[in-house]
Specification:
Transmembrane segments: 288-310
Bound molecules: NADP nicotinamide-adenine-dinucleotide phosphate
Strand content: 5-15%
Keywords: Membrane, NADP, Oxidoreductase, Transmembrane, Transmembrane helix
Family: Belongs to the short-chain dehydrogenases/reductases (SDR) family.
Number of strands: 8
CATH topology of the domain at 55-277 and 312-372: Rossmann fold
Pfam families: adh_short (PF00106)
Region (Disordered): 371-416
CATH superfamily of the domain at 55-277 and 312-372: NAD(P)-binding Rossmann-like Domain
Helix content: 40-55%
Length: 416
């Protein structure tokens, strides 16, 4: 069809083709739009690795970038363990997993409840995993779970810690600290990878542990208001600080794994990779852009073509993470690579490699977890006692009302 039209145009002149000048005028804009869309879409992963039967843990695997990573790995027949906020018995989650199994023709997709907003939940899962005898196979841990809260939704977790700090950093620290023996115990020939999802905001982070401590004080003030209490003051830039801390910990964790002397004297087989997926159109980004308000949502919808153009789709955002999980060359070496747009790049902040910073952060995190867990344990015991007391009171009331009823019942009166 286009060939006869072009031939006609060449013979009779362009004006002979209806709307030809309009098309010529519009075409460069379409080409520019397509070029921009392609550019903002970022690099595509072309690396592959045999994933069948490999066991991969994914946090944040139910939405956004993490969901695409989980789907791609499941499609390659990996055994995917989704660490989710909800219990596996949750109706929506069960349906989601059923769909994923059907779509990817992979029955080996499971969910385990790991609420990153609860240090207790993280501990419960991780200790259950490492207590398994014989040790369970583990080929990769992909950490995509997290939050980027708009300023209006300042909050704290049930542990009384800033939610961005805990979900983006502290819970990952907690999870990997407990899972560390499960990673170290893998056979030396196994290529095990831990992939951390970071964000370029780390570059501007003002890393000061006092920032997080200040937040603790604020949490303490609002502790009596319950877990949903809102923080009156959120430390400035805590999201960036949490990502900076995550990257610093990633390097420290690699050093911790490398320092382990295996009983078979073979070199360590677990490598850490840090990935910046780039700006992506996910539920998390949408919430952040809209500021969590209806007006924000309206503005977002009105400007949607712009976001469609400049932000990656979740599937495009997943590419660098898939590259980190599957590129063959990362099966060897010391680990601690930083990946962006499916290639290795230098980290913009050299202080994430500073051993002193790593040590201080590690000690601080351990202390923060210990304190929060102690408080959490006391709260749980008190809540349990309260519940028991209430149940006992209820039973006593029921028994006494049953007795009174029997005494005044029609049958008892008739019997008199
Ligand atoms: N999107 C971007 O532009 C961008 C840019 C740079 C870096 N990143 C990083 O990439 C990662 C994924 O980002 P995303 O935009 O895909 O995030 P997202 O759409 O907000 O998804 C976050 C995931 O974390 C899970 N999650 C939230 N709270 C949780 C909790 N308490 N316990 C367990 N899981 C919880 C969510 O589960 P539910 O589905 O149950 O809510 C969801 O699956 C994040 O680490 C983010 O910082 C993203």
């Amino acid at each position: 069809m286009p060939i006869p039209i072009i031939a006609h145009g060449l013979q009779e002149g362009i004006s002979a083709i209806p709307h030809a000048w309009s098309v010529i005028r519009i075409a460069p804009w379409f080409i520019l739009l397509a070029a921009l869309k392609y550019y903002f879409g970022g690099a595509r992963n072309t690396s592959e690795r045999l994933m069948a039967s490999k066991v991969v843990m994914v946090t944040g695997g139910t939405s956004g970038i993490g969901a695409c990573v989980a789907r791609e790995l499941a499609a390659r027949q990996a055994q995917v363990v989704l660490l989710t906020k909800q219990h596996p018995s949750d109706g929506f989650l069960a349906e989601y997993i059923d769909d994923l199994r059907r779509e990817t023709k992979n029955p080996f997709i499971y969910a385990e409840q790991v609420d990153l907003a609860s240090l207790h939940s993280v501990r419960e899962f991780a200790t259950k995993w490492i207590d398994n005898v014989p040790p369970r196979r583990l080929d990769a841990v992909i950490l995509c779970g997290g939050v980027a809260e708009p300023a209006s939704a300042r909050g704290q977790t049930q542990d009384g810690i800033d939610d961005e700090w805990q979900l983006n950093y502290l819970s990952n620290f907690h999870l990997l600290s407990i899972l560390s023996p499960a990673l170290r115990v893998q056979p030396a020939h196994r290529d095990v990878r831990v992939v951390f999802a970071t964000c370029s905001s780390y570059i501007g982070a003002k890393f000061d542990l006092e920032t997080v401590k200040r937040d603790e004080k604020d949490s303490a003030k609002s502790k009596d208001q319950g877990p949903a209490a809102r923080l009156s003051v959120r430390p400035k830039g805590i999201y960036a600080v949490s990502k900076f801390a995550l990257m610093t910990f990633a390097h420290a964790f690699q050093r911790h794994l490398n320092a382990y002397e295996r009983p078979d004297s073979l070199p360590p087989c677990t490598r850490v990779l840090i990935v910046d997926p780039g700006l992506t159109r996910t539920p998390g980004t949408r919430r952040w852009l809209t500021g969590g308000s209806l007006w924000g949502l309206l503005l977002y919808l009105l400007t949607w073509p712009f976001w469609w153009l400049v932000l990656k789709s979740p599937s495009q955002g997943a590419q660098s993470i898939l590259y980190a999980a599957m590129e063959e060359k990362y099966a060897r070496g010391e680990g601690g690579w930083f990946i962006k747009e499916c290639r290795e790049v230098d980290c913009a902040r050299r202080d994430v490699l500073d051993e002193d910073v790593q040590k201080r952060l590690w000690e601080f995190s351990e202390k923060q977890i210990e304190e929060a867990e102690k408080e959490g344990a006391v709260k749980r015991t008190l809540a349990k006692k309260e519940k028991q007391a209430e149940e006992e009171k209820k039973t006593r009331q029921e028994t006494s009302s049953a007795k009174t009823q029997t005494a005044g019942s029609r049958r008892s009166r008739r019997n008199k």
